[in-house]
Amino acid sequence: MKLTIKDIAKLANVSPGTVSKVINQSGNLSRQTIEKVKKIIEETGYQPTFSAKALATKKSNLIGLIYAGDINAEMNHPFFNDVVNSFKNAIGNLGYDMLVFSNNKFSKDGRDYLARCIHFQLDGCLIIAGDRIEEATNELDQSDFPCVGIDIALKGPNSSYVTTDNRKVSEAVVTYLYLNRMKEVAFIGGPEDSFVSSIRKDSFIRNMELFGMKVKDEWIQYGDYFEDSGYAAMKRILAASKRPQVVYAVSDMMALGALRALKEKRIRVPEDIKLIGCDDIEACRYSDPPLATVRQDKDKMGKLAAHMLHDLINEEVQPNSVMVDPQLVVRGSCSFDSIH
């Protein structure tokens, strides 16, 4: 029979609370009491359960991972996968484990994220951006529960977020193209209501206008950050009255889809149309030609999110948000003879 904390307390002739204090090395107990309880634990081979530890310390050392929104990135998106891996390693070094939330069943049952965080005695949550954010995410953000978001602007009293400086993403692209005399640029964005894509689009238009580069409505198309949508968007751009010199997609996955559409039409890249993406996922190095992109520092974003969440949990800092600078990475799909 598996022993409980009450069984140990009975054998040691102390209260369950005293046993909890011995296990968690807390409270003021005499050396004699501590040694007596430890001796019983050693003799019986008792292992305190996770729930017993959590109850005694008020901390579970568990972090929730939420892929937010009706349309979410989930685990198959290379960018978010890399950020989460970095976060997982950093938060693990800080002494936490992770619990991944499932959206579907709990949504149908009407159980929200906050209730589940309390149910599992979580210490905090990492929220990964999605589109059409559900009310349950907003409720969690507006509570006192410690949360850090990736590419989602959390505004709650105990929330922070980490994101790339998305205005600089498009600024770097347009400036590079202008300096290389490329003025006819098409844009493939994420969903029109996407927080990140909207910032990149607004910055793209603002910087195009700054340099006197005309923005054509028929060259602005939208996808869902994944490859097939980039393929479809590229086909719509090619169906326009005139072809652009360059296509800029706000995710590498969509840019790779666009590359497939161009190859299908036997349009050469970069000779006929140049192509640039965003994120710098691993596949960029191995496409033909290698994909030019704007690198987001995924490792840094994951580490920052972990340390910020740890500090929020331990009330060591006030909620604050961080923007990480991007870096333009020039590869074959958007190269110019003048830069070689």
Automatic annotation (TrEMBL):
GO MF annotation terms: DNA-binding transcription factor activity; transcription cis-regulatory region binding
Alphabetical keyword list: DNA-binding, Transcription, Transcription regulation
CDD domains linked to this entry: HTH_LacI (cd01392), PBP1_LacI_sugar_binding-like (cd06267)
Pfam families: LacI, Peripla_BP_3
Domain HTH cro/C1-type: start-end pairs: 2-47
Family matches, as SMART domains: HTH_LACI
Chain ranges of the HTH lacI-type domain: 3-57
Top-rank lineage group of the source organism: Bacteria
Protein's UniProt name: LacI family transcriptional regulator
